[in-house]
Design brief:
By secondary structure, this protein is α/β, with parallel strands linked by helices. The chain has one domain: Divalent-metal-dependent TIM barrel enzymes (TIM Barrel), CATH 3.20.20.150. It is built from ten helices and eight strands. It has an eight-stranded parallel sheet, with helices on one face. Helix 1 packs parallel to helix 10, helix 5 runs parallel beside helix 6 and helix 6 packs across helix 7. Strand 3, helix 5 and strand 4 form a beta-alpha-beta unit.
């Protein structure tokens, strides 16, 4: 553990009322934190932690991914597109069944596929390819026992009226959402893109979304902090939250993670927070373990903030 990480973790542990030995973290060092969480139900107690194989975990195949998630304590995984896990529509029926069985035989939940499909494109042929690709991967998610697919708006094209793009994105979400219902899948819409990452734009999109399985995936963006501020932006979108929130690495100070945890506890969020780290993947599992410990600490602090 680096001195900076040790300092950050020691500070967080101290403010949570948890002792730090100075020799690093192990399972026993945070075991006492669960006593607070398990002593009685408290808002926020059902929050869970997983990983998005964006960069961290990107080089792990499915057996390694599951083993390492079990080892460090991740409860779920979102499979980012075109990574070493190899879960793509090219898999045949037997290969899809094998992926499903591997997750079913483990404590790790496969949340689904993190695609790059997007619905803002002015070119209607490109738009239709993105919609069809989403539908193909919805079938894949169903076949591997997952629960949904991540899509995203990616921009507001400068030469198209904003209202037209917003309406197109919403219509595309409704089409794919309705299709996904036949496969018991969710459409997770990542708050993402130039202009489209602004909470007010995402609200305008979801004001036109009609399918109940289309949900927002909060993405911990810098735009969250723009006026009127994190709490107001969070409240603007919270009614559409689904079962996945993306977070950055929890030992960075580039985003107010604890404030986000507190807000999630305040709505008694019972889904997953998924680590989507933006730095190169670590060489060993210690950095992953540290993120799980930090999650537990921030969760405890969020629960205590409401007591």
């Amino acid at each position: 553990m680096t001195k900076r990480r040790e300092f950050i973790i020691k500070s967080l542990l101290g403010t949570a009322g948890i002792a730090f030995s100075g020799t690093g973290l192990n399972a026993g060092s945070v075991a006492s934190t669960s006593q607070f969480a398990e002593s009685a139900y408290s808002p926020g107690s059902k929050m869970k932690y997983g990983i998005v194989t964006y960069l961290w975990g990107m080089n792990w195949d499915i057996p390694t991914l599951i083993t390492n998630c079990e080892e460090v304590g991740f409860e779920a995984v979102e499979l980012r597109t075109e990574r070493a896990h190899g879960v793509e529509t090219s898999l045949n029926k037997a290969e899809r069944a094998e992926v499903k069985k591997r997750f079913a035989d483990s404590p790790v939940t496969c949340l689904g596929y993190g695609s790059n499909y997007s619905f803002h494109h002015p070119d209607q042929d490109v738009l239709r390819r993105n919609i069809q690709g989403t539908k193909d991967y919805i079938k894949l998610c169903y076949d591997i026992g997952a629960t949904g697919i991540k899509v995203k708006p990616d921009a507001l094209p400068a030469d198209v009226p904003t209202e037209k793009t917003i309406a197109q994105i919403a219509a595309s979400l409704n089409e794919t959402g309705k299709f996904a219902q036949d496969y018991n899948q969710k459409i997770r819409v990542e708050v993402h893109g130039r202009g489209t990452s602004e909470p007010a734009v995402m609200k305008a999109i979801f004001d036109q979304v009609t399918e109940p399985n289309v949900k927002i995936c909060w993405n911990s963006n810098n735009a969250d902090l723009m006026p009127p501020g994190l709490e107001a932006n969070f409240n603007m979108l919270k009614k559409w939250f689904g079962d996945l929130v993306h977070t950055r690495a929890l030992d960075t100070d580039e985003y107010p993670h604890q404030d986000l945890f507190n807000l999630l506890a305040g709505i008694d969020y019972d889904g997953y927070l998924g680590l989507e780290a933006h730095s190169p993947p670590p060489d060993n599992l210690d950095a992953y373990r540290e993120q799980v410990y930090l999650f537990k600490i921030k969760k405890i602090r969020a629960m205590r903030s409401l007591s």
